[in-house]
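Continuing the series of single-chain predictions for the mutant panel. This is the parent chain; the variants come on the following pages.
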Amino acid sequence: MDLVSTRIITEDVARLVGFYERVTGTPAAWSNEDFAELAVGPATLAIASTRTVPLFAPGAAEARANRSAIVEFLVADVDALHAALDGHVEGLVNAPTTMPWGNRSLLLRDPDGTLVNLFTPVTPTARAKFGR
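Parent structure:
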């Protein structure tokens, strides 16, 4: 089994895609106005309109309702990325902070409120875990 993608349902696909394009530096591939994907490393982040939900099951997903998942991106230098994003993205939750498990993390909320963790491993153990 392979985890292929994470999909976020939104009422404003263009706005959310724009946020993730800026944060990741990755352009989205658009299938249509209701669906776009960002291939980031070995994973894909899919952004889909609420209009796509009934194709799976009516009411199965709800935009702006996530309070339990964090979308995480491994980045080369979280402090440099924080400086580059300053003034360009809103939703700062926590400035870069070194966590007890060895990652330096910048925590944001995307425009729909989903938590986004941008992190760089900084301890030898954390760097080894991610091959850095």
